[in-house]
């Protein structure tokens, strides 16, 4: 039993219809990945390991951090990069495993809606955070 | 995994380094996918729980309490382990892609990734679980 695989690089579409989208996607994963290594590992180290780890976290701790534009920018950059990097990764996974075109389409729609929702909500929260919000 | 149905490929797994399926490189890719997808799902939850700072300090503190539960605390160690693997293996992938000797050293780099992971996770586990374990063992 031999493997029946298409020859790689066999052109299926006319050259004129190809775009460089997947190349940019591939490049973006590497560039954003490099930044996320610093942003996310730094975030995990501060939040989960330093000074008693997760037990130190409460509203006051968040208020103290977001008083600084540095950490606001850190979290904003991390939110956008992680969401696009992760969303693009899940897009690849859906493309690989969805068998029907309609399944693939709807899973990706669900993915894109959740990405827009999370990026918008996160950005809104970072920009409108109020340390003196009433404690009810 | 490769031996059963594909005799024409036997013996090539380690020699030329060209074969991918069933080899160590495939499993590093599988682990990269799984850790990536799990982290993405956690990120969804995490942005929602953090958004509660916009509702009230009490609502936020209440949801953060669940992160301090011993079982959830253990899941956080798993999350950090998953993200750390994804980060280290991601650097390896970039070196394979952009460094001229990357493909040649991909196997050595994978063992390096795993070694660094173990070396970081041992103290990481200790510092992440220190409070939880002392609370459980020593009474409150």
Automatic annotation (TrEMBL), chain A:
UniProt keywords, alphabetically: Heme, Iron, Membrane, Metal-binding, Transmembrane, Transmembrane helix
Segments passing through the bilayer: 27-50, 70-88, 109-129
UniProt cross-references to CDD domains, sorted A to Z: SQR_TypeA_SdhD_like (cd03500)
Gene3D superfamilies: Fumarate reductase/succinate dehydrogenase, transmembrane subunit
Record's keyword annotation contains Transmembrane: yes
InterPro entries on file: SQR/QFR_C/D, SuccDH_FuR_B_TM-su
Name of one Pfam family that matches: Sdh_cyt
Superkingdom field: Bacteria
Cellular compartments annotated: Membrane
Name of the molecule in the record: Succinate dehydrogenase hydrophobic membrane anchor subunit
Organism: Lentzea rhizosphaerae
Taxon lineage: Bacteria, Bacillati, Actinomycetota, Actinomycetes, Pseudonocardiales
TrEMBL record, chain B:
Segments passing through the bilayer: 26-48, 69-88, 108-128
Pfam families associated with the record: Sdh_cyt
GO cellular component entries: membrane
Cofactor(s) the protein requires to work: heme
Gene Ontology process terms (BP): tricarboxylic acid cycle
NCBIfam families noted in UniProt: succ_dehyd_cytB (TIGR02970)
Protein's UniProt name: Succinate dehydrogenase, cytochrome b556 subunit
Annotated organism of origin: Lentzea alba
Annotated gene: sdhC
